[in-house]
Structures are given as C-alpha cells and as structure tokens.
Amino acid sequence: MSRKLPQVLFALLALGLWSSMLLFALAVPDLQKPPGERRSLQNLPEAKVVKVIDGDTLDVLLKGEEIRIRLLGIDTPEKGEPLYKEAKERLAELASAVVYVEADAEKKDRYGRYLFWLYSEDGQLINAELVKEGLADCYYRPSFRGRRHALELLYQAFEACQKKIGIWSESYGKVALIAPNLVFLILPFGFYSQEAGFFYFF
User: Fold this and answer.
1) Is 70 in the active site?
2) Helix, strand or coil for residue 3?
3) Fewer beta carbons under 10 A from the terminal one: N or C of the chain?
4) How far is CA 173 from the centre of its chain?
5) Burial 44-61 (b: 16+ CB within 10 A, else e)
6) Domains identified in the chain and CATH numbers
C-alpha cells in the first residue's frame, strides 16, 4: 500500500494541475485568441497623443483632459540604458497620433500615472508589441491585480527570449531564469517578472 502512495499523490497533483489550467484558460480571454491578433476597438475610449516620454510612458488628451499614461504590464529600458532610444522611438511610431485605452483593475501607479492597455489605430496591443520586439519586459508587482493580457505578454516575452532579440540579446545581457517551454506548466500559479527573477504567485 505504501508503494502506491507516491503514485496516487502524483496522479492527484497532475489532476489538480490540469484542472487549474483548464479553469484558468476559461477565465482568461487571452487564451481564447492567438497572441498578436488585432482587437476590436469598439467601445474603447479614444485618446490623442500629446508627447511620448519614454518607451512605456506618454501624455495623451483623454476626454478633454491631458493625462500621463504608464503602459500596463511592461517595463522598457531607462534613460541612459541600451535600447532606451529604440523603445521610445518605437512607441512613438505605434502611438503616432491617436490611441485607444483599456483600463484594468489598477487605475494609477504610485506616481499618479494612469495605467492602461494601449491600442494603435489598427488594433495592435502596443504593450505586447513592444515585448514582442524585445524592447520591453513583462513587469508585474503583487499590487498589480490586473491580469487581462498577462498571458500574451508572457508569450511574447518568451518568444523574444528564444529569438535573442532586443533586451534578450547577448549584447544587452538579460537572461531568462527559467526555460521558455516550462512557462505553460507554471502559468496557472503566477506571473514571471524578469526584474525580480521569479514568479509572483496569486
């Protein structure tokens, strides 16, 4: 009987893992459409771009008010770091004149900047596009309750990591601490943060 116990425990663990993955897949919209797919902009507020500050921050005119937006879920190189200029210029290209904003659970960061998912005029999720091109990394804190597009960001980050482009290139020096093909085994339990070097659990 005692010899079968490890097998039974393993079977229960496997069943629990796959059950949680199924429930997670049903709960998260990102798993129901291919990464990078254009979104419908219907019902999303339109904002006029005023100024791009850096790769993940910009000023916009939204509903007659000028506000500063910090793109949710990503982190781009800071001023003085490699790829800072490239990330800023790419954001300026993607958010050339008009963007569409989507709110999540967190409304503002500690600096008072509004937190949004940002879409280009052709329906691209700009947050994910910057990650896809290796110009941004996934950025999550335990206080960031919003996870609406987190799976797409993770997918794009690991794709960029495998291709060794942008921040994942050897010249930049960023290193993934876990193998990309393991991400789908851990996704139901947390999000990876390159800055912290481990998964945040929820």
Assistant:
1) yes
2) coil
3) N
4) 20
5) beebebeebbbbbbbbbe
6) 25-201 (2.40.50.90)
Q: pTM for the whole thing?
A: 0.71
Distance CA 44, CA 126 (A): 14
Specify the amino acid at residue 53. Answer: I
Name the DSSP letter for residue 28. -
Catalytic residue among 113, 129, 147, 152: 113
**Strand, helix or coil for residue 52:** strand
For residue range 52-98, list pLDDT tens digits in order. 999 999 999 999 999 999 999 899 999 999 999 999 999 999 998 99
What is the enclosing helix (H) or strand (E) of 78?
A: none
Residue 78 falls in the annotated catalytic set: yes
CA distance 74 to 167: 13
